[in-house]
Amino acid sequence: MGNKIVVKREKARLSDPRREIVFRVFRFSAEFDVLPFYADFTLKVAKNEVLLDALNRIKAEIDPSLAYRRSCRHGICGSCAVKVENQALLACKANVFELADRYGELLTIDPLDKKLAARDLIVDKTRFWNSYRAVSPWLEATIEEASAKENLVTPAETDRLGGADACVECGICFYGCPVVAANERFLGPAAFAKSYRFAADIRDQTPLDRLRQVSGEKIGVWDCVKCYQCYETCPKEISPIDKITKLRAMIGAERVDQNSIAYRHARAFKTSLEKYGRLDEAANAIESAGFFGALKYIREAFAMLRRGKLPFGVKKIERLDEVQKLVKSASQESKERR
User: What are phi and psi of 117, to 5 degrees?
Assistant: First the structure.
């Protein structure tokens, strides 16, 4: 009897291409709620429906109080960014069947940052936009009102932007960045990608000003820890980490803010490799922070000494010439990519 029921259900499922999905949605109102909670909504979803379709149906058919951002429905505006099973994505681009295949037929939907939830899936993006405005996200150029010729940009010059102009300001990279979470002053990967977009634009007349905007300690590109989280989550495949790396190279080439500890650290790192083929930890700390500045790391220095990680008198490695070739090659490649 039991087997017949199972077979009957399976036949019914196969005859109905829709799948029953439970959406467990984060709910919270900063105005009315003390604590957040989750609400379950069950829908039969068609094969071609995306997550935004499901949210629209929940709002239209079940609970009109559900709040979330939406606009273009084509992955252009970046408004509908949310998290599904802790994975950030654009709701208008995420097929529900594919999500169910990956995570199961109970899907947990969260805002990009639950601590910043203003209402349900809507987060307060004040900090994101403040960081964005801090890098002057517009072209600085003198335009003649009655120019006799067009301001042409070649395909090669456009390629130099590396797709940075495709950013939709969804905030996914920003809210997923561990440095943004730990450091309130850090501008974040989206702002850096936008800064590079204009710093690399041949029409822009203020590239040095832009490099100064993103080179400062605590706020700038030197505080990026290169975890590649922004690379993994960007829905437009812009790779903000690639733009951060290029900005660092441009800052070094233009000798912007040479007195910053981060710049001195990078320079000391390169010098150490060229001289010994390995890192001279003591010299690196003194070169980066200065003699008196390095004293604050004395406890770590003794800990490293005990573990044999801070030997007196750094020796050159064998085949130092091979490392020197690598450093030279990387420096040349960096120049060519700028």
Answer: -65, 125
Amino acid at residue number 68: Y
CB 203 within 8 A of CB 151: yes
Neighbouring-strand partners of residue 50: 95
Q: Mind listing the pLDDT tens digit for each residue in 58-67? A: 999 999 999 9
Which residues on adjacent β-strands are paired with residue 119?
A: 29, 122
Enumerate the β-bridge partners of residue 43. 21
Q: What share of the chain is helix, strand, coil (3-state, %, to 5)?
A: 50, 10, 40
- Adjacent-strand bridge partners of 24: 40, 108
277-319: per-residue pLDDT in tens?
A: 888 877 888 888 787 777 777 888 888 888 877 766 788 888 8
In the sheet with 19-27, reading across from the earlier edge strand, the strands are 37-45, 19-27, 106-110, 81-84, 87-90
Dump the DSSP string for 83-108.
EETTEEEETTT-BHHHHHHHH-SEEE
- Total-model pTM: 0.79
Whether residue 118 contacts residue 26, with contact meaning beta carbons closer than 8 Å, is answered with no
Instruction: Supply the DSSP symbol for 214.
Output: T
Angle (CA) 270-273-279 rounded to 5° is 100
State pLDDT tens for residues 95-141: 999 999 999 999 999 999 999 999 999 999 999 999 999 999 999 99
